[in-house]
Specification:
The protein is α+β, with helices and mostly antiparallel strands and 165 residues long. The protein has one domain. Helices cover 62% and strands 12% of the residues. It contains six helices and three strands. It has helices at 2-25, 28-31, 62-83, 87-110, 132-147, 152-163; strands at residues 33-37, 41-48, 113-119. Strands 1-2-3 form a three-stranded antiparallel sheet. It is globular, with a radius of gyration of 19 Å. The mean pLDDT is 86.
C-alpha cells in the first residue's frame, strides 16, 4: 500500500504542478492556445464541468462528481488492501487515485477541471483537451484491469487444494 500512496502522491503533485505552470505561469487563461509542437501538441484552455469529453457539462454536477471520485478512491484503496496484488496492481491503483484526486481539487477550487493538453495529427483537428490526471486515471484503470486479478499466491493455493484429494 505504501507504493500506492507514493505513486498517487507524485501523480497528484505532477498534475497540480503542470496545471499551475501551464494555466497560470504561461498564462493560458489569457492566451487560450499555445502551440508547443504544432500540430502534434498544443495547449488549449478548456474548463470541463462535466464528465469525459465534457458530457453533461450543462448540468451542475460539481459536487456529485467530487463525491463519486472520492468514493471510487475509497473503493480502490479498500480493494487493494483486500486483493494483496502484485507491484503493478499497486502502481495502477496509485495512478488512478492520484489522478482522481487531482481532478477533485480542480472541481473544488475552480468548479471545473482544468484541461489543457491537445494532440492532433495528420490533418485531424482534435477538438478535445485533457490533463495529466486524465492520463493517470485512464492508465490506472487499464492497469487494474490487466494486473488486478487474483494474486499469484491465491491462485497457487487454490490450484494446490484442487490437486490434493
Amino acid at each position: 500500500m505504501r507504493l500506492t500512496f507514493w505513486v498517487g502522491f507524485w501523480v497528484f503533485l505532477a498534475d497540480q504542478a503542470s496545471k499551475w505552470l501551464v494555466v497560470h505561469w504561461l498564462d493560458l487563461l489569457t492566451l487560450k492556445r499555445i502551440d508547443v509542437v504544432a500540430p502534434l501538441l498544443s495547449f488549449r484552455m478548456a474548463w470541463n464541468k462535466g464528465v469525459n469529453f465534457g458530457l453533461l457539462s450543462s448540468v451542475d454536477m460539481r459536487w456529485i462528481l467530487v463525491g463519486v471520485a472520492l468514493a471510487i478512491c475509497a473503493f480502490v484503496i479498500w480493494w487493494l488492501r483486500r486483493e494483496n496484488g502484485n507491484r503493478w496492481t499497486y502502481v495502477a491503483g496509485g495512478l488512478l487515485i492520484g489522478g482522481a484526486l487531482g481532478n477533485v481539487v480542480d472541481r473544488v477550487l475552480y468548479g471545473a477541471v482544468a484541461d489543457f493538453l491537445n494532440m492532433s495529427c495528420c490533418g485531424f483537428e482534435n477538438p478535445y483537451a485533457f490533463n495529466l490526471a486524465d492520463v493517470a486515471v485512464f492508465a490506472g484503470a487499464i492497469g487494474l484491469v490487466l494486473f488486478g486479478g487474483e494474486s499469484k499466491d491465491k491462485v497457487k493455493t487454490a490450484r494446490s487444494r484442487k490437486k490434493t484429494p
